[in-house]
């Protein structure tokens, strides 16, 4: 009798295991796999004319480009040959049901020197232009970033003809100081000075060339991968037709230049319809006391005339110019997104938010040192990633509700703020900026609708002027000085998600927190299980992941 009971029990366990394995196979079935092996090393780079220590991936700066198609599975094995812990995060990739793979310290233990970790990602229901970057300390200032391009599936219509070629433009600021020196300045309680220069695809002045054939149209995917400054992008003598912003197909408005704030990505079409010669591709800083400028070259294949003279000037400190441009960017309601149905079939403006969250950034001094805060809480990393502490029910790491829904007028303090939220709720978030600098905010795991932005203090009366019809959905948004930006967001992705400043010194010194989107169902339908290969650190050491 006891033997029969044991057999039944074993059969039951085997059946459960079989169901779990089948479920995991179904999750990724019928979607291609792409495999990558990346070796992270130090290496010498010279983009500003002096030797610097950069962070290379497979010997490259910037790192290798990821080209994939909607729903592709990406298996990326990362080997850390640095002398310090390392992590990679995926700016704009939503990690559907899978914040385990987000690659920030709140979700993932660092890859220790000499060790490796394999990320398992899926570009689930996404298209568009994104990038990856190193997320720990000030590593991003040394490189370690690269482009991610997610193409539409073959049968999904795209609202423009295939371009002759698809160019990547990774532009941003750079310091001559090493990432360790920048970290030391911040740890000493000081802010960083203005960057030393700007670069395009890892190169300095006229160091990179885009070759085009006269009469053909090209796609340029531009990302601001810097850590400190907004940029303006333009091509001498050419106009740009905007077609995509962080996974949203846009109305195809023509611009002579584009403001691109920290962490943002845009796609434009450029037709080589000018006399055959070489033209400047210009990137300049925005809203800085001294304008930084760098150039690349747009080379017509039948040209024998080099660029000469000064590059064309762009906007410098004009806020209203940038604000009006931002408002002019609209969703293409009839175009398909990652699925065949039109983008406009999702009527975001007809859904009433169940909760309003106002987030105010500030720059307090705490214990005599410069810090940055959200609603008066300045974030500091605990010894254990929040996601692991939540999964294993480890106490003493964080408290839910440790950041308020509204600005707090008391003295700022250091903590580990985590905001609680319910799965499938629909929220309104107001980013209120009382400072004199442009802010750039990113939310991991999500794409949100930018329904409004304007100067001054936000009030409920501003809702009357929201764009509830055709604003774009994106993952990174700017907030102008002494201004506000409002977004709508459907909390349809369970997990622990980083909300942060894309200004890296502000993020490092506390302008970030985590949003815990919770489902009581505890089902793989809502969230994938902890990866079997998850690294366990801090108070999570000694726990087990899962058998399969």
Automatic annotation (TrEMBL):
Gene3D superfamilies linked to this entry: Cupredoxins - blue copper proteins
Record keyword Ligase present: no
Domain Plastocyanin-like: 40-153, 166-303, 383-520
InterPro entries in the cross-refs: Cu-oxidase-like_N, Cu-oxidase_2nd, Cu-oxidase_C, Cu-oxidase_fam, Cupredoxin, CuRO_1_AAO-like, CuRO_3_AO-like
Signal peptide extent: 1-29
Keyword terms, alphabetized: Glycoprotein, Signal
Pfam families cross-referenced by the UniProt entry: Cu-oxidase, Cu-oxidase_2, Cu-oxidase_3
Family: Belongs to the multicopper oxidase family.
Protein name: L-ascorbate oxidase homolog
Organism: Solanum pennellii
Gene: LOC107008622
